[in-house]
Specification:
This protein has 550 residues and is an alpha+beta fold. The chain has 3 domains: 99 residues, no CATH class; 268 residues, Penicillin V Acylase, Chain A (4-Layer Sandwich); 98 residues. It contains 15 helices and 18 strands. The strands form 4 sheets. The chain has an 8-stranded mixed sheet with strand order 3-6-7-8-9-10-11-12. Strands 13-4-5-16-17-18 form a 6-stranded antiparallel sheet. The chain has a two-stranded antiparallel ribbon with strand order 1-2. A hairpin with a 5-residue loop joins strand 11 and strand 12. The longest helix has 29 residues. The N and C termini lie far apart (62 Å). 54% of the residues are buried.
């Protein structure tokens, strides 16, 4: 069967709508479904790349060490990994258990520090926030998070995945954003918003001072925590109880009861930032720099030292420059529009465009960026580096909503940093909606209903154009593409009802992918004719920066 994503010759092309995978059943079955669907959707190319013909004795010992930590802290993932290898093999990619384990752990060997430059050791640029209580319109928890990097970074497939385990919580997340899977949420109303800066202290230290060693890798630790945590406080306990190989297990977590935190550093010293520490009222946010006073020396400060910027954290070198600008946007949005946050407001925040650098040319702007610490740059959380944007409204039950934009939802925005601008193929600039319902069938039914509504409203607007109106032909073609996806969804839904076991789950996954593509394409048509809000004014609120003029 041909891959679902487009190829040009032998080159895989990033799809314009993020694929959704569904896994259910035992730990082995979920792993099997996971990697079998990777091949179904993306083709064999991505998994063939991780096949390793031989392992040295040193590598085998390293894998045994990792397996020891997984068996101790995340024992269910041993069978999950075995299922991954089996699913890939049955899909035609001869992966071994060692291949999968080596890939998930980075095939790292300690006690030597990981090889690679400082930049390679750091996280991607990402942004995230959570708001609840008095900060939101109805008191509900609303979260937003972006993974900022090239969508084909290191040629790893990007997708959203929904887990329905036999034990533990149902949950949804989006690997590999942020080097892990944020944003994510489970059906107990717990949200993993953003990786924050957890692990940056180690990443920025001198190699001989690093305390990295064998432990639970980030992705696996987050999958385990989303599955088992019944509250944000429980997530903190799980996070801090696990060993961690190169840091990174931590980040921002929140729950529907208003408990939230950001683990900025796990140990030496342990620093947990909480709402209110920097005047936040019922909200918290983070980008890629640190706030904690104890960590003021971290991230390799310049000769003059790091400088603390109120509501934005420590400004020094590297990623802290854009982080400060993005933190200030998050603070101003969540503080000055306090009580106005809902899903549409969160989407607007990621459409609110960054401004182009104030230089005659981009070349001049990039040359000046680091020496001037970003002077003349005006970064926002919406950038041309957005690989995935997620907006969440979690629920303690089966009514949590998860909105996905593959790439930036802003039709016009700016580079994030020098070189931080990527251009998608046929972007839709739209969100699709998933509901974390109680079963694959219920998720499919909700996606189907939303696709039906999105087609209706797009059709109402489109048919007001005449054939000779310039936008009509192009938009009608996109609408037809949405209609094709609808029919594909109907086809696979029928097959899912007629089959059982893993075969049925495969068909539910295909149906969900079709319905979410339908949603995104239909919304693209609608948004072209009825532009969505991309500023506070579009939501009937005071204009941006109104407070600076008072």
């Amino acid at each position: 069967m041909a891959p679902e994503i487009p190829y040009v010759g032998e080159v895989p092309i990033v799809p314009n709508v993020r694929p959704v995978l569904v896994v259910a059943g035992s730990d082995f079955d979920m792993g099997y479904l996971h990697y079998h669907q990777i091949v179904q959707v993306f083709g064999p190319f991505f998994l063939r790349r991780i096949i390793q013909e031989e392992y040295s004795e040193e590598q085998r010992e390293a894998l045994k060490a990792y397996q020891w930590h997984l068996r101790r802290y995340t024992p269910e993932l041993i069978d999950y990994i075995k299922g991954m290898a089996a699913g890939a093999r049955d899909a035609g990619v001869p992966l071994s258990y060692n291949d999968v384990l080596a890939d998930l752990t980075g095939n790292r060997i300690f006690p030597e520090a990981p090889e690679g430059s400082e930049e390679e050791a750091l996280e991607s640029d990402c942004s995230g926030f959570a708001a609840w209580g008095s900060a939101t319109k109805d008191g509900s928890l609303v979260c937003g998070g972006s993974g900022d990097h090239d969508l084909l970074k290191n040629y790893r497939p990007e997708y959203t995945i929904i887990h329905f385990p036999e034990t533990g919580n149902n949950f949804i997340c989006s690997p590999p954003t942020g080097g892990a899977c944020h944003p994510g949420m489970n059906n107990r109303g717990v949200a993993f918003v953003h990786h924050g800066c957890t692990g940056y202290l180690g990443a920025e230290s001198e190699p001989e001072d690093r305390e990295w060693g064998y432990g639970v890798p980030k992705l696996l630790g987050y999958l385990h925590t989303l599955r088992w945590a019944d509250s944000a406080k429980g997530a903190m306990e799980v996070m801090l109880s696990m060993s961690n190989d190169i840091g990174g297990l931590g980040g921002i977590w929140a729950d529907v009861n208003g408990y939230a935190f950001d683990i900025e550093n796990r140990e030496n010293p342990r620093c947990i930032r909480r709402p209110g520490d920097h005047a936040e009222v019922d909200f918290i946010y983070s980008t890629n720099n640190l706030f904690s006073e104890e960590l003021s020396h971290a991230q390799r400060p310049p000769p003059e030292g790091n400088v603390f910027v109120p509501h934005a954290g420590w400004l020094g070198t590297g990623k802290t420059v854009s982080a400060v600008a993005r933190n200030l946007q998050l603070w101003n949005m969540l503080h000055h529009y306090h009580g106005e946050v809902d899903v549409e407001f969160a989407k607007m925040m990621f459409r609110f465009p960054g401004e182009q650098p104030s230089y005659p040319t981009l070349e001049e702007a990039e040359e000046a960026y680091y020496p001037t610490k970003g002077a003349g740059w005006h970064q926002k959380i919406s950038t041309l580096e957005n690989a995935m944007v997620g907006v969440l409204k979690p629920d303690n039950g089966d009514d949590g909503d998860y909105y996905v934009s593959h790439g930036s939802p802003a039709r016009f925005t700016s580079p994030l940093v020098p070189g931080g601008h990527y251009y998608r193929v046929a972007p839709t600039y739209s969100f699709f909606k998933l509901k974390l319902a109680s079963s694959p069938r219920k998720v499919t039914e909700a996606a189907r209903r939303q696709a039906q509504l999105d087609q209706y409203y797009a059709n109402v607007e489109l048919r007001q154009l005449d054939y000779w109106d310039p936008p009509y032909v192009r938009l009608d073609k996109i609408f037809d593409e949405a209609a094709v996806e609808w029919q594909k969804g109907e086809f696979y839904k029928t097959h899912a009802l007629e089959t059982a076991g893993n075969e049925s789950v495969f068909h539910w996954g295909r149906a969900i992918r079709a319905y979410t593509r339908c949603q995104a394409l239909a919304s693209q048509v609608y948004n072209a004719l009825v532009p969505p809000p991309d500023s506070p004014e579009d939501l009937g609120l005071n204009p941006w920066m109104y407070w600076s003029k008072e």
